[in-house]
Amino acid sequence: MTEKGQTSEELETETSVQQDEAVTPDTVESESVEVEEQQETLTAEELKDAEIEELKTKLQDEENRRLRVLADLDNARRRATLDKEALQKYRSQEVLTNLVPVLDNFERGLSVKAESDDAKSLLTGMEMVFRSLEEALKSSGLTEIEAAGIEFDPNYHQAVMTDSDENFPSGSVLEVLQKGYTLKDRVLRPAMVKVNE
Questions:
Q1: Residue 8: CB partners within 8 Å, gap ≥ 6?
Q2: Alpha-carbon torsion 152, 158, 162, 167, what sign?
Q3: Helix axis angle, 117-139 relative to 93-110, nearest 10°?
Q4: Which is nearest to 159 in space by CA: 175, 143, 146, 145?
Q5: CA 194, CA 171: separation in Å to the nearest integer?
Q6: Which of 36, 66, 144, 187 is spaced 20 to 30 A from 132 at the CA atom?
Q7: pLDDT digit string (tens) for 155-173?
Q8: Claim: this prediction has a pTM higher than 0.85
Q9: pLDDT band at 32 (very low <50, low <70, confident <90, very high)
């Protein structure tokens, strides 16, 4: 018996198995080539995956930028449309603002009592012109602000005086000192009023 109780046959079998399993330079080389190819394949796949992710990110960024540009363009169109509508709606504002004092002067002139026939006929003519002017201004969107006897509204009324009258509730308009006008929904001139305390 040999060392450690192995028989010669067992040693021969073990030696032949070790020789079968022996690594030759060719097997080492082929295994290392296979490992390198697998690593290259993995590296190439990883690179492709990284490139795909990068391209996806860039595509998403470009899509977001495109959507923002479209939203900005839509907002600009909407603003332009609203500006155009406002310009159309209030195109006569400057002219009407200049004509409001003319209405005041007409009303003052019409409040004068006419005694002679000539003055009466002149007053009648003035009334006709005033009514025509008033109708033309109303058709352009000019309306008189209601004030007498209603509650004071700082959006439409300008308080220039106060008084105390027990017949009216506190904060109501007692007297209109100067008429106010609106153009559609915009105040051209607030009504100057006397307000009850």
A1: 2
A2: negative
A3: 160
A4: 175
A5: 10
A6: 187
A7: 999 999 998 888 888 888 9
A8: no
A9: low
Which residue carries 């449309």 as its tokens? Answer: 81
Total count of residues recorded for the chain: 197
Supply the pLDDT for residue 1: 46
Q: Which of 69-73, 84-88, 123-127, 146-150 has the lowest mean pLDDT?
A: 84-88
Residue 178 has pLDDT above 70, yes or no: yes
Q: What is the DSSP track for the chain?
A: --GGG--HHHHHHHHHHHHHTPPPHHHHHHHHHHHHHHHHHHHHHHHHHHHHHHHHHHHHHHHHHHHHHHHHHHHHHHHHHHHHHHHHHTTTHHHHHHHHHHHHHHHHHHTSPP-SHHHHHHHHHHHHHHHHHHHHHHHTTEEEPP-TTSB--TTTEEEEEEE--TTS-TTBEEEEEE--EEETTEEEEPEEEEEE-
Q: Six-digit token pair at 4? A: 């450690």
Radius of gyration of the chain (CA): 49
Q: In this structure, are strands 181-183 and 142-144 parallel, antiparallel, or unpaired?
A: antiparallel
